[in-house]
Specification:
The chain is mainly beta and about 160 residues long. It is built from 1 helix and 10 strands. The longest helix is centred in the first third of the chain and has 14 residues. The termini are close together.
């Protein structure tokens, strides 16, 4: 349960945090507080629930991988990815040549999630295929700083 509590705290912090993508320095601090929360971002959705604009990437997204929680946060054109006990990455997200792409640089040199192509995105979920060993991952939108339902958090780390 400690992992679930830590993850909930992480999601709450992420809802109030945006990653700084400018400068290109590796000072070790890749996140700075911001007054913007993901609640202010809106996406227009088609009749099937799929998003129809690049704003659909905006917000906090959560998945699990290898027993760890992975949080992906997109604010404007900036993106940040945080893995419990692992990588802290920052970069950009947006449209390129008609595709939605995410480009990240991780402070620990990890190449697992460097370039991601968004295969699909809706109000509640997003599928990203990463060029690194992480491959395809399905994320669930985290609303209001809370973990989405259905994550296997009770068994993490035990």
């Amino acid at each position: 349960m400690r992992i679930a509590a830590a993850a909930a705290g992480l999601v709450g912090a992420l809802a109030l945090t945006a990653c700084s993508g400018g400068g290109g320095s590796d000072s070790g601090s890749s996140a700075t507080p911001s007054g913007t929360s993901s609640a202010g971002a809106t996406a227009s959705a088609g009749s099937d629930g799929s998003a129809t604009s690049s704003d659909a990437l905006q917000g906090s997204w959560i998945t699990t991988s290898g027993g760890k929680i992975v949080a992906l946060v997109v604010t404007g054109k900036e993106a940040g990815l945080f893995e419990t006990g692992g990588a802290v990455c920052s970069g950009t997200a947006g449209e390129e040549a008609g595709m939605r792409m995410i480009h990240l640089t991780c402070t620990d040199g990890s190449k697992d999630r460097v370039t991601g192509m968004v295969d699909s995105v809706s109000k509640s979920g997003m599928k990203v295929t990463w060029s690194g060993k992480s491959g395809a991952e399905t994320y669930t939108r985290a609303e209001g700083g809370k973990l989405p339902s259905g994550l296997p958090t009770a068994s993490l780390g035990q």
